[in-house]
Automatic annotation (TrEMBL):
Protein name per the record: YeeE/YedE family protein
Positions of transmembrane segments: 6-24, 44-65, 71-95, 107-130, 150-171
Superkingdom per UniProt: Bacteria
Signal peptide location: none
InterPro entries from the UniProt entry: Sulf_transp_TsuA/YedE (IPR007272)
Organism field: Polynucleobacter cosmopolitanus
Keywords (A to Z) from UniProt: Membrane, Transmembrane, Transmembrane helix
Amino acid sequence: MSTEQILGLVTGIFFGFLLQKGRVLRYDKQVGAMLFKDMTIFKFMLSAIIVGMFGILAMHDMGLIKLSHKAMNVGAILVGGSLFGIGWAVMGFCPGTSVGAIGEGRWHAVFGAIGMIVGAGVYAELFPFFKSTVLSWADFGKIGLPEVLGINHWVIAVIFTIITLIMFRWFEKKGI
């Protein structure tokens, strides 16, 4: 195994541990999130996004990593987001929590993992078709919010964090 693979494995295990400790692998938390009655998963995800965002931006500014945007493609977002949402609603797990649930010994989540693998394989086989259809719908290229707005990425990071903290406070006041 390469160093990158070992670091990926260690990071994945640590993330799975945090998912389990944050109780976001629980079915009742998943359903509560879909019904907007329990914001535990949203708080967990937004916290992870903020930590990751600041870490990635800091490493980018130090020259340790190079950012490479994926293309902003409306067709891919609509179709991919719909499939993601349908899968989450049917299984009661998103991809990360599905694998975490398997780690907890909930074997019914294996079907979700198999679905992810089969779906990735089908996508790879049908990629030429998708490239000429869905992936050609409103393709804006490799853009990011800082480029669109013409402002520094740290401004967006701080504004996003402030909005998230306000939402967290509102969630707590509502008891969700």
